[in-house]
Design goal:
The protein is an alpha+beta fold. The protein contains 3 helices and 6 strands, in the order E-E-H-E-E-H-E-E-H.
Length: about 140
């Protein structure tokens, strides 16, 4: 960041280049949270088509309730029990087992983001380009 000092007539009298502070672990965590909240694409492989699955904090709160219910259905021997959910694409009915498959797909997308975050946080110093896409997994 460059700071300039002018006299009262608008003439530059001094200029100082003060470097930006280095990134912190909190900066990396904020970038991780931003990327985790972007969601992912899930293809049902049938007439329901492709949906964008939301992964904001509010989305994940809803997932928790659905996950518990669908896991209970599976534990009780009823994996074909259906539940209605709403993706970023729109409403869709899924079976208990299908919801577990969505959760597995989410893990496949989200875990590499966590891993990249941990690797960046362990660097000393944290690189200035920590938010560059090249340092994070492609999530398509």
């Amino acid at each position: 960041m460059i700071f300039r000092k002018y006299d009262g007539q608008g003439t530059l009298i001094s200029e100082v280049d003060i470097p930006d502070p280095p990134p912190t672990e909190d900066d990396v965590i904020a970038e991780r949270e931003r990327r985790l909240a972007l969601g992912f694409v899930y293809n049902f492989g049938d007439a329901r088509g492709v949906h964008h699955i939301g992964t904001t904090k509010a989305d994940l709160d809803g997932w928790d309730e659905v996950a518990k219910g669908t896991q209970a259905a599976i534990n009780l021997g009823a994996p074909s029990t259906t539940v209605d959910i709403v993706t970023d694409t729109g409403p869709v009915t899924v079976t208990a087992l299908e919801f577990q498959m969505i959760m597995a797909a989410a893990t496949a997308v989200r875990q590499p983001i966590w891993a990249a975050s941990f690797a960046l946080q362990a660097m000393t110093p944290i690189p200035g380009d920590y938010a560059d896409d090249a340092r994070w997994p492609a999530t398509g």
